[in-house]
Amino acid sequence: MSSNTKILGIPVSAQNTAFNLLKGLGIETEYIDPLFMNTVTDSILEIEEKASKKGKSKEYLNGEYNNTINNQVTEDMKEVALIYGNDLKNATYFCLSACDADHLSLKSISKYLSENYPNKPQILGGPIAREGTMPFLKNNNINYLNTGGMSSLIEFLNGNKNAHGLYTKKESEFYGNGTGTLPKIDENILIRGGIVDSGEEIILEETAEDNILHTGDTTISASIFTLSTCSNNCDYCSTPKQARIPEDVYIKAINRIKQDEKKITLRFYDDNPLTNPLPYMEIINHACQNFETVNINNLYIDPTALSQSYNARKFIKKLINNAKIESITPTFGRECCDEKITIHLGRNYKNNPRTQEILDKEREIIIEFIQNDKVEYGLIGYILAPEETPETIENRLNEISTLSSCNENIETMTQTLKANIGTRTYEKYKHLIISPFPGRDISNIDAPHFRVFERSSFKHENSPNTLYSKALEKTADILASQN
User: Fold this and answer.
1) Count: domains in the chain
2) Which parts of 279-354 are beta strand (E)?
3) Interval 361-381: pLDDT, tens
4) Same domain, yes or no, for 69 and 165?
5) Strand, helix or coil at 93?
6) What DSSP string describes 107-151?
7) CATH code of residue 27
8) How far apart are CA 43 and CA 112, in angstroms?
């Protein structure tokens, strides 16, 4: 890699982890504070809300609306340039990171960078960088699409223009080798890099445990992310399945310290740990060897896997029966309880829709799990499809009531189906996509154990991937009639 290579990270709507890791590898890297970039995306949300209040038509949203966004982004980026002018001027590459929901922001930001810094190649990464999103990005000003994660980017910066997962755009089309095998982030990167925990950036340190483990007065918490993978192949899923950090990295970090008088909390961030529980069991076993008490936090549980897979049930049973494990905080991806809705959602198990028999068995196993004394708190997620009827909504609300009665600390969270670009859901429902979201504000529904996204998060769904459905409003009406 040339000693003159300089990276400027531009987090359109994603975290700074990758930029910290690059810096940890000795690559000259700066990045724009996400707070500055948030002003750009927040401005677009304000434009959407104003358009909604004026009852603007879809033609406006596709025409004058885009011009309004471009003008606003230009003004906001001028403010960013006042602070980061030298970094923008001196960068060899602009590395942009974005999520699906902000592809309009990304397009405008990329356009601004191309017009004002025409000789600076743009590399796009983050959740939006997938093969499926290429048709939406080909008319963008992006030069390279990095679908392969950190390893692909490092290979590219080291001179390999044909790195797996790195696509080059030529005449509005992307050409490359695909993601290939799962890129592997090794311990050396983690040792000198940084991670993000609870939204706070961890200062770069020289040891793995300083990045992975966070010491408090009485406990140590560990952020665990080993493998982004899932075999369900759900229609709406837009999570890239590339990242790979060996469990040995975490085991070595845990083994380096002996804190017998302290607790450790393991926070799991993987997409679907029950796909392959073995690596997680190894990490948990080493934690139990080194600490008197272990808490398992943020463990995503696919209830279908729990009801259908022997290995998944064996893994959970070991956690429950382990005397050193004090508590387990699960997050269940339940989504729905009616077979006809799960077909509309495209919520699968190993590429097949869930039958009513499977859904009913899921409910039984969730009830059994949350009644265990180790489950002090848990979250169960639901998704509302455009095809919801009063009957399916009432079935869901009755299930929520039943689950809540089994454990009063169990909370449910409901959201509308999102048609992220590049997904089968987008192709199926794109005729229903309306931006901004015209539904009324129902964030203050007064019902026990039921909530939708808070309005601050719900705003984020006022983006061009939100399906307009009156399902949430129907839900609000039914809840109101029950009170």
Assistant:
1) 2
2) 293-301, 325-335, 348-349, 352-353
3) 999 999 999 999 999 899 999
4) yes
5) strand
6) HHHHHHHHHHSTTS-EEEESTT-SGGGHHHHTTSS-SEEE-S-HH
7) 3.40.50
8) 16
Residue 68 shares a structural domain with residue 202: no
Q: What is the mean pLDDT of residues 465-477?
A: 61
Contact status, residue 24 vs residue 192, Cβ threshold 8 Å: yes
Asked if residue 165 lies in contact with residue 242, where contact means CB atoms within 8 angstroms, the answer is yes
**β-bridge pairing 6-11 and 28-31:** parallel
Contact of 252 with 208, CB cutoff 8 Å = yes
Beta carbons within 10 angstroms of residue 90's beta carbon:
13
> Which residue range(s) make up the domain with 68?
6-175
Q: 388-391 — which CB contacts under 8 Å span 24+ positions? A: 388/341, 388/469, 388/471, 388/474, 390/474, 390/478
Strand pairing report for 122-125 and 196-197: unpaired
* CA 298 – CA 359 distance, rounded (Å): 23
Model pTM?
0.77
First to last CA, the chain: 65
Does residue 113 sit in the same domain as residue 194? no
Joined together, the tokens standing for residue 269 give 């961030």
Distance CA 135, CA 142 (A): 12
For residues 432 and 347, what is the distance between their CA atoms, to the nearest angstrom? 19
Whether residues 54 and 194 share a domain: the answer is no
* Contacts of 332 by beta carbon, 8 Å cutoff, 6+ apart: 301, 303, 366, 378, 379, 380, 381
Same domain, 103 and 233: no
Percent of the chain predicted with pLDDT > 90: 27
Q: What is the C-alpha to C-alpha distance for residues 407 and 420, in angstroms, rounded to an integer?
A: 34
Show which of 107, 141, 175 is a domain's final residue: 175
Q: Answer yes or no: is 457 within a domain.
A: yes
Q: Are strands 219-224 and 263-268 parallel, antiparallel or unpaired?
A: parallel
Angle at 466 between CA 389 and CA 69, to 5 degrees: 155
Residues 462 and 436 sit within 8 Å (Cβ to Cβ): yes
3-state secondary structure of 382: strand
How far is the C-alpha of 314 from the C-alpha of 379, rounded, in Å?
21
Indicate the residue among 143, 175, 207 that finishes a domain: 175
3-class DSSP assignment, residue 170: strand
Mean pLDDT of the chain: 76
Among 318, 285, 294, CA closest to 222: 294
**Integer CA distances (angstroms), 156 to 30, 100, 316, in order:** 18, 24, 41
Rounded CA gap, 285 and 425, in Å?
39
Cα(99)–Cα(128) distance, integer angstroms: 5
Residue 181 lies in a domain: no
Q: If you count DSSP H runs as helices and E runs as strands, how many of each does the chain have, helices first?
A: 19, 19
User: Domain for residue 332, yes or no?
Assistant: yes
List, for residues 70-101, the tens digit of each pLDDT value.
787 888 888 888 889 999 999 999 999 888 77
